[in-house]
Amino acid sequence: MEPRIKSPPSKLAKLKPAIAAVLPGGLPAAVARFYARSDGLKFSWAGEQAVLVGLAEMFGGLKRGAFRSHVVVKKADLDELDWPALPFYERFFNEHDDITDKKSLDRLNLRMRLKLLVSVAGESTELAIDYFDAKPTIYFVHRADAAYPLKDLEFGEFVAWFSRFGTRRWYFAFLDKKAEASLNIDLRAELERSLEDFPAEAWAPLLARMPKPKKKEPGPARAQVLAAASDQPVVHASFPPLNQPPEVLSEGNPRRVAFSPDGQRLVVWDANYELFVHDVGRRERLWKQKHAQAMDLSADGQTVAVLEHPRPYEHADRLVLRACATGKPLHRAPWKPGSQLTRLACVGCGRVVVADTADTLHVLDLATQRALKTVPGVKHVRRLGAVGDTARVLAHTQTYDEGSGMLTGPSAVKLLDLEAGAVVTSWAGATTFAASTDGTLVALGTPGERSVVRIVELESGRVVHELPGGATHPNEDPQYGFHLGFSPDGARLVVSERVYDAGSKTVTSTVSLYDAKQGTLVGRVDLGRNPERPRLTIDAEGLALSVDGVLCVAADAYGLRLWRV
After folding, report:
1. How far apart are CA 352 and CA 386, in angstroms?
2. Which InterPro entries match (predicted)?
């Protein structure tokens, strides 16, 4: 089956004056010849679609001010820019860049002057062109954070390859070793995997451009040891109280945190798929690793269970059990069931539960890594969590739409009995949960115009307390930033949420501490805004309370925040 190509009518004549205002010399000859025939291309093949954009979208749309000349930005200008009003904001660049020197400023200016060619559906990837350099160059833009030149790729050749393969990763053949190292992927393997549905002879010239394949199958990620573990106690008084600014341990993009039972170690997973373990008393990292898609800490705090992917952009395919103190794998080889793995939780009775994309839960023994049981038919698992020292697990289930990147359809939190392989009970509408360590209580968060948290007695199903939350922005996903966590003794519950104030039309992110037995508010803190970018709310992405009364909040891109409570 051959790809179908549609060529919209040319708009070059109509848009020439606007383009000339941006590019006094006009479009480069090869680009002008193409757009004189067609206003972009639409590629269709086997239900897959890709678009080489028309001239209006290339320059940022038809809205007023989109067709603008590039102005070189200086460091002093950064805080004065109206970032969201700039064409391709958050596609090629954003205001979160850490500009520390001329090189980083030059990289930002490059991305700010790029013009769009293609967006890759389902990925944070664009192909763009720089008209302002001495020679027009096509770039691969990754996560609005880095731009890599596609070397020796002329525009006419770009159109020809796009017409054959759309946005399959044929363009990886034009990236160099420096880009491969920065992206931390095997470019040849990615290209082969992406084009395997097409006849091999069609993409043989691309393969010929690339180094020979790497034959060795990647094993478990290597843990980098940074410091030796110690038994130094955590001094509770060394942390500020909740009503004072927190102690911040910078971590890049932390998303999930877990304390060991003794409160001495803190396990952190971040949005860059990295995992870190801290000695809390010494404020020091013990070890770190890459390629971690999900993690959980065993009830005794000795084992970190990690779902790892062999390469970036791939799903996790293995479970690795590591010593929390050293990062050393506890078994000779990882557990690999042959399916894609998505979520996990360390549960009671020394077990770990792993969900896969085939709607199956796998139950394994933590000590031996032996598979004990499978529970089929558990669909759309978004998160798993333990329920005390029992063979039960909590699961948040909801459909995820990969195209939009949004959760859709009805949401529920379910309590499953792993021995019976059955649902014990289900709470419709709930999207987040936390269970007390003894398994007697579960807190359930339900978003809406105003959020609500219910503390439920599991044995009877009785709602012990109902904690009203704040209002939600009408145009915002109410699940965003909504998280819960119990203290190890079950006496306290911490809740994070984004709260909308209709009067000022602003959103703030709050962390509230409750007495779980009484259902009363103990304290609340507004995480505030990034002092360097005051329009940005700092959101809580992960919560943990230690046994000795330390609260850790993973506050999106601004690090780990710790208080004593």
Report:
1. 9
2. Host-pathogen_enzymatic-act, Quino_amine_DH_bsu, WD40/YVTN_repeat-like_dom_sf
